[in-house]
Structure formats: structure tokens, C-alpha cells
Amino acid sequence: MKKPIHPTQDELEFLNLCFNRFIDLFEEIMPDEFWDKPDYVRFFKTKDLFAVYSEVLKYPPVQWVIETNKRPNYSDVGRDLFKFVRHVLMHFPFFERWDDVWIKQSLVNLYSERPRFIHKFLTENEGRDELKYRFWEERHKRMTYISLCLPKNYTAGERVFLRDMVPEKDGVKFSAMFMWDIMKVQVQEIEDGEYNNFRQDAYRPED
User: Which of 29, 64, 125, 132 has its Cα between 20 and 30 A from that of 190?
Assistant: First the structure.
């Protein structure tokens, strides 16, 4: 069977939609001014950002990037933290603010025949010491430091609040940078190829 060549014309249209929306959200979320907006507005935009990225994951070459050494050089826990946040927002769409989001063991695996990633991440890391990460914000010419506090009471069946694990601003920015590091590999590959109709202004965030 002939191996499909990516991107096809339909995929180019799909990627344009994804990248246009992602960059609009990225450019809105990263500036400091965004965090003065009402909490429910911030959360709506954050969930939209993760939703767009989840759609981009359907494009096969993105999975190839994630599964190879092209992926960003984050630690395993840092990479899994991003994935954890994405899964929490996807599987627990019941809240209007970051500070209200909570999960518990009995609900995480409800209706699932095998342990979900959320459960595996929390059980494997339960009780670990506080972890620290940093990322460079080109827009502000500064290094941003974040701390991850892993819960000690997940397997005891207690509620685990997302706010207690990672602050909203730092967690969202960290995740946004991670998503863009994955996506921009596709941008470079398309730029280097023969697909000149992929919009140049659709995927160039200022930072």
C-alpha cells in the first residue's frame, strides 16, 4: 500500500484552521495583561487552547514528533504534567474556573476499563517532593519558574484540586509553550516542503 504523503490539501485546510486559532489564543494568553481578566474568561480561553491542540493531535505527523527524539527536551515528569493537565480539562469539563477544578480517584476511572493517564500519573508520583521547572518567555525576556506540588492524598480517595498542584498562570503558560514546541516542528516541515499555500502569518507567535 502506498504510504500517504502529508500534508494533503484537506490537511492543509485543517491545519490552517488549527494554527490560526491556536496562535490567536496563544498571543492572547501569554501577555501579562491577560491575567487581569475575569477568572472565568481566562479558563474559557485556556480550555479552548487545549481543545485546539487536541484536534491537532489527529494529524499523524504530530504523533510522529511526539514519539521521536524531535520532541522538546523536557523531563519526563514535566512532559507528563502537561499531559495530565490536558486530560483533566478534557475529562472533567464541569468547572468554570481553574481554582474550582478537582478530581478524585473514584471518579477518574469511572466507566473506564483500564486506569486512565490521570490515575497513573498521580499514583506514580504521589508524595514526591516539590518539583521545579523553568521556561524562557521571549516576549518579556525573562525566565519563569514554576513549582509542582504533587498530592499526597489521591489514593486515600480525597479530592485533589488542580490549583494546589500548579498555579493557574504558570501552569497554563508552561502548557502553552509545550504545545507550541510540538506544533512548530510541523510548521518548519511544511515551510521546507512544497506547500507554499500554508499561510505564513498563521503560525508566527511574537514570543
Answer: 29
User: Which amino acid appears at position 54 of this protein?
Assistant: S
Q: Tell me what pLDDT residue 198 has.
A: 36
194: number of Cβ within 10 Å = 6
Question: What pLDDT, in 10s, does the model give residues 19-59?
Answer: 899 999 999 999 999 999 999 999 999 999 999 998 888 88
Residues 119, 109: contact at Cβ < 8 Å?
yes
- Residue 199 pLDDT > 60, yes or no? no
Tell me 20's DSSP state. H
Q: What is the pLDDT confidence band of residue 165, given thresholds at 50, 70 and 90?
A: very high
> Cell 494546589 appears where?
164
- With b meaning 16 or more CB within 10 Å and e meaning fewer, what string describes 165-174? bbbbbbbbbb
Instruction: Count CB atoms within 10 A of the CB of residue 119.
Output: 18
- DSSP string for 49-84: HHHHHHHHTTSHHHHHHHHSTTS----HHHHHHHHH
